[in-house]
Amino acid sequence: MSLPPLVEPTAELSIDEVRRYSRHLIIPDVRVEGQRRLKAARVLCVGAGGLGSPALMYLAAAGVGTLGIVEFDTVDESNLQRQIIHGQSDIGRPKAESAAASIREINPHVEVVLHPVALDRENVREIFAQYDLIVDGTDNFATRYLVNDAAVLLGKPYVWGSIYRFDGQASVFWAEHGPCYRCLYPEPPPPGMVPSCAEGGVLGVLCASIGSIQVTEAIKLLTGIGEPLVGSLMVYDALEMSYRKIRVRKDPACDLCGPDATQTDLLADYDDFCGALSAEAADATATATITAVELREWRDAGKDFLLIDVREPAEYDIVRIPGSQLVPKGDIVSGAALAGLPQDRQLVLHCKSGVRSAEALAALHAAGFRDAVHVHGGVLAWVRDVDPSLPTY
Amino acid sequence: MSVTVTIPTILRPVTGGEKTVHGVGSTLAGLLADLDGRHPGLSGRLLDAEGALHRFVNVYVNDEDVRFTGQLDTPVGDGDTVTILPAVAGG
């Protein structure tokens, strides 16, 4: 299915721009008219992280006239393995500013608009309304559903990409012409079931593989070239080096874009919809949480307890709290590891940041280990508050 | 002959790291029951408490989403390929 161009060719090219974009202008499908459409286009990239980095850089180089960036985070050293729009000297700097500086260096003809905020239901409409197309480079389910819902309600095309370890997915959601994200995945997984890249890792260059698909699709939509990924899901496997295109149907029962849609507005709370913690984990942690400093005090006082690290072996190899024993969360939740745990000792669980250990804690409480507690903030809190000589990741 | 099932990265702990497994059955439900015998826990990751497919995992039989072809009653047979695709949010 081909679609008409999203943007009218209202902008004129300067002599400098004709020189700059000459390799585009001589493509018969693009020509001066297509480049003028790109110049007139306003594209919003949500997130200047893994996917946002290559997406923003190529959108800028391609000559998209106005690029908006929604990003409130600052550059961390652990970002630089994949977020190539930021550099060593940007560590500690707001990502939005760092990204804007890189874009200006790539192409000074691009107008950059910074939105240094966390996207939420109060600001999303006003921000999205200023743009023709939304590129999604976010890293969590709550923001993805918020972006999708706002895009559907405002009638904007939503160029989506998602990555994990060696796997990537990309699609274009546009309810007027095909399915939306809720047609593909009506509900988010419960918290703790699907690891994030911070928990499970991601091959840095995978961001370029998926981000470049997103930019390709954005350019095609803006200029009306080719067949967009509307109604198709591209599935990339870096280890097999395979791309598969799977059909995505518009779900006639979709709550948001179906004929009998029941959702006519943004949800009241997307964190709640996606569950920052499951109800069981929230209950378990309410009265059974200690801080990293308290853990050190327990140890200094000679208290008898068993410290259990519920992360994965690869994480345990990077950094660990001394004296901990590794029992991955999955083995606790499935019950496989329960027989090996002492009934007569205080158990203290921790993970990287406190989410997985909360889920494991709920499982232990349910299995009868009523005294078990977990460490708020996990090993990251231990490094921050107790032993800053250890590495973080 | 049997049905070939592609296991996504996040479910590979259940299959001992195997990326592709094989099973038999005349419907998707039968196939999953067969697989769960050799890979305990696989069904639990795909089905909810009522035994229906989770809405955050998509299952495709030969590239057709089973949500539109009869869910767990979708017929499968020798030579078919089943793909399991969970939602991931990394970016």
UniProtKB/TrEMBL annotation, chain A:
Instruction: Tell me the protein's name.
Output: Adenylyltransferase/sulfurtransferase MoeZ
Key words of the record:
Nucleotidyltransferase, Transferase
Supply the Pfam families for this chain. Rhodanese, ThiF
Organism of origin is Pilimelia columellifera subsp. columellifera
Instruction: Cite the GO molecular-function annotations of the record.
Output: nucleotidyltransferase activity
* InterPro entries, per database record: Rhodanese-like_dom, Rhodanese-like_dom_sf, ThiF/MoeB/HesA, ThiF_NAD_FAD-bd, Ubiquitin-activating_enz
Occurrences of domain Rhodanese (ranges): 301-391
From TrEMBL, chain B:
InterPro entries cross-referenced by the UniProt entry: Beta-grasp_dom_sf (IPR012675), BPL_LPL_catalytic (IPR004143), Mopterin_synth/thiamin_S_b (IPR016155), Sulfur_Carrier/Prot_Modifier (IPR052045), ThiS/MoaD-like (IPR003749)
Domain of life, per UniProt, equals Bacteria
* Cross-referenced Pfam families: ThiS
Which ranges does the record mark as transmembrane?
none
Task: Describe the location of the BPL/LPL catalytic domain by residue ranges.
Answer: 1-91
Q: Which organism is it from?
A: Pilimelia columellifera subsp. columellifera
* Name used for this protein in its record: MoaD/ThiS family protein
